[in-house]
What does this fold into?
Amino acid sequence: MIEVVLGIALALIIFLVWFEINILPVIFLGGLFFLLYRMTSGKMPNLNNSIGKTARPSSSIQFEEIGGQEVAKKELLEALDFIKSPDRIKEMGIRPLKGILMIGPPGTGKTLLAKAAANYTNSVFISTSGSEFVEMYAGVGAQRVRQLFQQCRQKTKNEKKNGAVLFIDEIDILGSKRGSNSSHMEYDQTLNQLLTEMDGIGNKDDINILVMGATNRPESLDRALVRPGRFDRVIQVELPDREGRLEILKLHTKNKPLDHDVDLDKISREAYGFSGAQLESLSNEAAIMAMRENKKVLSLKHFMEAIDKVMMGEKQDKKPDKGELKRIAVHECGHAVVGEVLKPNSVSVVTITPRGKSLGYIRQQPEKDYLLYTKDYLETQICILMGGTVSEKLVLGEQSTGSSNDFNQSVELAKKIIDAGLSPLGVVSVDHLSGEVIQKNVQDIISEQEKRATRIIKSNLSLVKKGAEELLKEERMSGEFIRKHLKKKGSFWPGKWWRKKAAGSR
Ligand code: ATP
It folds into this structure.
């Protein structure tokens, strides 16, 4: 149809030009009509729809597009089903749901869940962040809250929707305990206004506004906000487990051409601890790498490198000199050998490419997602961390500052052991322990693991040297290299007997 109209218009223009008639007014009028047509048919952005600086347009996200959050989705759907059948709620005398609080780390899909909730309930979606209410002047934050709720009502009416979902990210900034802030008058007024609006005081219209708040600091919220009748439901949105990661990876690679060697299951194992946002970034980075190499498909190697990038940051231009490179290689190999001896098949990659703040690193692949850590697990992690500095000492004769981050992590792990009542101190209240006692126990735990790492490195010194040479040549080496050479040594790998022997009695 459009082609016919365009054809006729072109023929008309040629005709007018042929008879030397001025066609400028015709073109101007034509343009005006075209613009009017686009506006009335909804193909132009309707400027009147803008709802203030805090609001963004509603979305078309569906629950099926959110991976690895089965429990959160189920709980949310149960709550939303109430909203979907308002008549039944009235019949049963149930008061409408006012608020849902989502708690979880960044990038786990809280915003996506709120958008999907709006879609599911055929509501308008308006989002804002707690930080947008931080004002120096008393009353301004409260006024913004009022405006926002007003906008929700207006938009619901304009778009003839069932209600509105008002998503407030970082709600802890707006809803922290009253009186806890330095400029508390302003904060308190803003929070009071939010409570008033949620209670619906003074609103005669029947529009349902569901407030969905997101935070990863629930302990700082004012109790009035989380009491029943306000945030009625609390939903935990956790980091995805391995199956969840796989599901999210499938969602984010759906539109990407993958090579035959891409094993999403393997990638989900390697991406241990990744959030949904990190998995999205990982898929995106892999695609960028493939494009830079002029490849038509994304292969496993792109994903593996993308994991390093998302985990450790961008490659750095830092150029360590020859001696430093050797030290870094020996250090990383030390971690890898201790890691592989104590946890066979755990080392995924060892590299001496500077990324982010680190000059080199190893990536371990846990055999499963842990919910709890045993004493043995924590001690083993300390031992692996000590493997780097011990290798430097045994191979190069002295240690360096390159181990300070390993020491910090070891201290944190040792404190965890004490905190959990797993140290020789037994079950204690850490608050009542003196700094000296804590320090002494931390030192004992770490020095025991340092001795254990020393025993392992001493019996595998030639492998540490060989691995370091390989790293200096290739910059990157897979855990397979260490496994192959440990196997060659034979008798002791990967049997439990050897691990106990190498580790010595603890
Ligand atoms: P924050 O707390 O930092 O605001 P959030 O929990 O609200 O983060 P989202 O904004 O929902 O996280 O997620 C950011 C992006 O990460 C999404 O646009 C999506 O691409 C991806 N993502 C996060 N979680 C998931 C998931 N569960 N399934 C699919 N994609 C996800």
